[in-house]
Amino acid sequence: MSLSEVEFAFFFPPLLLLYWLLPRRAALQNALLVAASLFFYATWSIKLLPLFVASTLVDFAVLRGFARTPAPADEAPEAERQAALGRRRLLLAAGLVNNLGALLWFKYVGFFANSLNEALALFGLGPSLPVWRFALPLGISFYTMSRVGVLVDTYHGRIAPVRSLLVWVAFVAFFPQLIAGPIGRGAELFDQYEAPRRPDPGGLLRGLGELATGFALKGYVAAQLGASWVDPVFSQPGFYTRQAHWLALAGYTAQVFGDFAGYSLLAIGTARLLGLELPQNFNVPFLSASPPEFWRRWHMSLNRWLFDYIYGPMVTGDGFMRERLGLGMVVVFLISGLWHGATWTFLLWGLLHGLWLLAHLRYDDFYKSLCRKDRVWVRRRKSAPYRLAGWAVTLGFFMVSLIPFRAASLSACGAFARGLASGGDEALGASNSGPAMALLIVALYHLAHLSAFDRLRARLAALPAPVRGVALGLAVVFLLIFSPVGAGTFIYAQF
Fold it and tell me: Fewest CB atoms within 10 Å of the CB: 87, 117, 413, 430?
């Protein structure tokens, strides 16, 4: 079950009704969320549920250990300080091994073994290592980052150790964000779980709007483009015409946005209906005019996590990477690529974006030197043509970089790239207007967030509730009729 599948329509309404019928007590509300979340997990794999629960309990034991071993005061005797710091370091190490060890074992052990076998084969060496393949626990990449963030923040004293097991399990297992985030932070969510939630009409209405928008992007846009343009061409790169390859690339760009941004909105809207506010994950990224701006708008919770917990400590520490800002970006995006998937194609994708950010950093330094010499360069940078050119380059690079993100292998990447230049003889079959409508929805979604449309958005928001209700109902009917069957397939579930 996922938030966009038919089964969710039978799971969530009774849960929502029972949730708001309960007395307004945080413990009762959290207990219901925990039970619902564990059931949600079990619908994916009941065999892996004990592992999920056990690792969650180990992390809670580590957090309680931090509570029993507070950070020593500066005026404490040196021996006492070192002993306390040593115990806290051991606790942190235990938590990191519990989380990162499981992630490495389930997601990467096969990749590393297979890569080593290929390297040995190049030199005619053996014997080959066994390549184990394991079922990937649901959402392990996402909940691992949430847990590690809490462990690190607690270790450094940025947040107090969570006291309630019920709050901790509710935070870790919360079903709307379990599969694909947004990646939660303890500093943002613990207070919400510890306080009783009360229904807010404005929040409930906003949550319904987010659910409708999310399903439009996930259930219609992503499904239409994937079935009509993306899947046929990427399954046979080089076989279709050049036009078909460009349509597939544009389609996949919109598909991966609709798929992930749509699912994020479904998660945020579902949480809001339950009185909880998750962090924003996408902010109209296709309006970005530079690489840094793009990554501040795309998968925001992941990139914020990477820069807070890896990039920042890496470039501000005392090691080799200190103040090596550009190289740090390359390293972080290599990690991001590997986080997305244990394949060489994802590593290539991460490398491309790291180099892209490095090149932009060097260009930005050069352009700032021009601005310091002559103010005319400042005016040029603020001009509409400059921003338009930046937007075109940013979006164009992102589109091309998605080839390794989608292709099945490095050789398939090369075949698809050649198809963009020359292509084959086979044209895409005649299709309905669904893909074009899907692209239009993505374009309108972004354009509607421009400041030029602020007044129009205000007028729409001021319409009587019955009018907005009818419009929402008609949109839902349209989606139910035209969304392809099987739209529950979710690209980011594999991560």
Answer: 430
DSSP of 68-129:
HSPPPPTTS-HHHHHHHHHHHHHHHHHHHHHHHHHHIIIIIHHHHHHHHHHHHHHTT--PPP
Strand-pair partners of 240: 426
| DSSP conformation class of 3 | T
Question: Residue 378 class from Cβ within 10 Å (0-12 exposed, 13-18 middle, 19+ buried)?
Answer: middle
> Which residues partner with 423 through β-bridges?
241
- CA distance linking residue 452 with residue 396, whole number of Å: 24
Catalytic residue among 340, 353, 360, 449: 340
Cis omega before residue 176 (within 30°)? no
Asked if 172 and 5 count as a contact pair (C-beta separation under 8 A), the reply is no
Written as one string, the DSSP assignment of 351-389 is HHHHHHHHHHHHHHHHHHHHHHH-THHHHHHHSHHHHHH
pTM as predicted:
0.88
Q: What is the pLDDT of residues 151-195, one digit of tens each?
A: 999 999 999 999 999 999 999 999 999 888 899 999 999 999 999
Give catalytic status of residue 299 as yes or no: no
